[in-house]
Design brief:
The complex is a heterodimer of chains A (114) and B (110). Chain A is mainly β and 114 residues long. Chain A has strands spanning 4-7, 10-13, 18-25, 31-37, 44-50, 53-57, 64-70, 73-79, 87-94, 104-105, 109-113. Chain B is built from no helices and 11 strands. In chain B, a hairpin with a 2-residue loop joins strand 6 (56-59) and strand 7 (62-67). The model of chain B has no long low-confidence stretch (mean pLDDT 94). The chains are: A mainly beta (114), B mainly beta (110).
């Protein structure tokens, strides 16, 4: 199984809503990532979890809250988002960090904030 | 942190011609350089990668070269086909995160 599965595929939420994005992999990868991607732009790193511990937070606003319940799951909790947060949110995983190891991406969640 | 630059931003080639995309990086500690292809509305997918202890790698019509001294690496696609049309991202890693280039939108004209 070389899949990273993200749910939901599409999400529309109001600025006062609370929602969560979910990501799952069963490849035994110990590093998991959240990226944000705007149209025609490269993926922009948000968070990195390594061995279920948050290792990198790229100065992301607190309205985005990551969680890693176990080695296979990664969540991104959303609260009080702004319209400019509308983007494709990609989850990725790699065997162990970035050195010499491919990052596998999920299909992404297309988020629209209204 | 690492800074990855990618050129050109757009590239159009005739079917059957070759396409070359170039990237430079700033951190000499970067040791792994993957290339991702992203079709419209889809996830980035790895097409080829190269490690810092290798100068060149080839996989059928796709090749990547790395010049560690000059800190640049390139993607070469030969005999291009319409299905090669997509956005291509280079990346560099120093450890626990991937730094992406700005992307190249490749169009192969039948």
């Amino acid at each position: 199984d070389t899949e990273v599965t993200q749910t939901p595929k599409h999400l529309v939420m109001g600025m006062t809503n609370k929602k969560s994005l979910k990501c799952e992999q069963h490849m035994g990868h110990r590093a998991m990532y959240w990226y944000k991607q705007k149209a025609k732009k490269p993926p922009e790193l948000m968070f990195v979890y390594s061995y279920e511990k948050l290792s990198i937070n790229e100065s992301v606003p607190s309205r985005f809250s990551p969680e890693c319940p176990n080695s296979s799951l990664l969540n991104l909790h959303l609260h009080a988002l702004q319209p400019e947060d509308s983007a494709l949110y990609l989850c990725a995983s790699s065997l162990e960090g970035g050195s010499y190891t491919e990052a596998f991406f999920g299909q992404g969640t297309r988020l629209t904030v209204v | 942190g690492e800074n990855v630059e990618q050129h050109p931003s757009t590239l159009s080639v005739q079917e059957g011609d070759s396409a070359v995309i170039k990237c430079t990086y700033s951190d000499s500690a970067s040791n792994y350089f993957p290339w991702y292809k992203q079709e419209l509305g889809k996830r980035p997918q790895l097409i080829i990668d190269i490690r810092s202890n290798v100068g060149e790698k080839k996989d059928q019509r796709i090749a990547v070269t790395l010049n560690k001294t000059a800190k640049h690496f390139s993607l070469h696609i030969t005999e291009t086909q319409p299905e090669d049309s997509a956005v291509y991202f280079c990346a560099a890693t120093t450890g626990n995160q991937f730094y992406f280039g700005t992307g190249t939108s490749l169009t192969v004209i039948p």
